[in-house]
Write a structure and sequence with these properties.
By secondary structure, this protein is of the alpha+beta class. It is built from 3 helices and 5 strands.
Amino acid sequence: MSVIEIIEFTTHEHVTSEALTEALDALDTELKTIGGFQSRQLFRDAVNANGWILDYRWDSVEDAQSSMMKVSETPVFGQLMTLVSNPETMRMLYGTPDLVPTP
C-alpha cells in the first residue's frame, strides 16, 4: 500500500523554483538511502505567493513520519530549510487509499 504525504510551505521571496528543486533533489538522494521513499512531486501553490506543495509517496506511514527525524540533522536538510520562510507554519498531512469501493 502506498502512503501520500502532503507538505505545504512558503519560501522566501527571492527563492526560485530552480533553487528549490535543486535543494529537493539533494534531499531526495538522502531519503532514498533511508528506505520506503517512492517519489516526490513539487507543485506551486495556485493561490499563495511563494507557496509550495510537496507530494511525497512512501511505502508506509511509519516511513513517512520517521524520514524527517532521520534527515533533520543533515547538511542537505539544513540547506533546504534556509529557503523556507517561517518553518513553524509548515503543514504535513498523511493519507492512505480508501479501500472501500465507491458506488
